[in-house]
Amino acid sequence: MIKERILIGIPGLDEMIGGGLIKGSTTAIIGTYGTGKTTFALQFLFEGLINGENCIYISLEESEENIYEKITDRGWDLEKYKDKSLFVIKLDPTDFNLSINSIKNDLPDLIKSVDAKRVVIDPISLFEGLFDDQSTRRREMFRFIEMMSNLDCTLLLTSETEQNNNYSSRYGLVEYLSDTVIVLMYIRPSDLSEVHTALEVVKMRRSNHSREIKPYEIQEDKVNVYSEASVF
Questions:
Q1: pLDDT confidence tier of residue 106, bands split at 50, 70 and 90
Q2: Is the separation of the CB atoms in 117 and 54 below 8 Å?
Q3: At what angle do helices 37-50 and 64-73 cross, to 10 degrees?
Q4: Which residues does the UniProt record annotate as the domain KaiC (predicted)?
Q5: pLDDT, tens only, 16-50
Q6: Cβ within 8 Å of residue 90, ≥6 positions away
Q7: Which residues contact 85 (CB under 8 A, 6 or more apart)?
């Protein structure tokens, strides 16, 4: 059976994952601060917007104004999409009941009502942090991912890395629950010269993918992954 794919919209990365994400799958982008997780997520949504798809961005960290400003700074026509095909929602992670109910109960209804095909939660680690213990966190995250998999959309989650492990998400869960895991990292040469950013596709279910570490660059209006280059 041929798996239908959708492009992330990042040259080089789509080639590394065999021509795009599998439609309806869940992807986790994991990285430390400053590696561009939000930019990757926005690029994923923009690819959907220019192809006529409705998209939802759930922010648990930055305000709606900041997200809209980032979109405008990248030269994208915000007014063409805002509240028409792009819906940005800010949730307060300090309000436990509101955030839990919004993500578990309101989000599925919103996805269905606007027929959203791409959904981003940035960062999912703040949602995970709402649960006091690991067993509850694991159970609730499993239920959430299962719920999302039954909806007609492709989900992208961002997560900070665990403090002492650049390949692990903060709570070590999303990489096991996601179909595709992309890790963003800094590469520091031994001669302490200029620091570079690089990524690795560490996991992709139901698809072949590149296992090489490749450099990437965030430019003013796009992200480029140099799939033919080497970081060493």
A1: confident
A2: yes
A3: 70
A4: 4-232
A5: 999 999 999 999 999 999 999 999 999 999 999 99
A6: 59, 60, 62, 63, 64, 67
A7: 49, 52, 53, 54, 55
Two tokens, residue 96 = 């436990």
Which residue bears the tokens 């900041």? 66
pLDDT at 230: 74
For the residues 60-71, what does the mean pLDDT come to? 92
Which of 18-22, 61-65, 103-107, 197-201 bottoms out in mean pLDDT, i.e. has the lowest?
Answer: 103-107
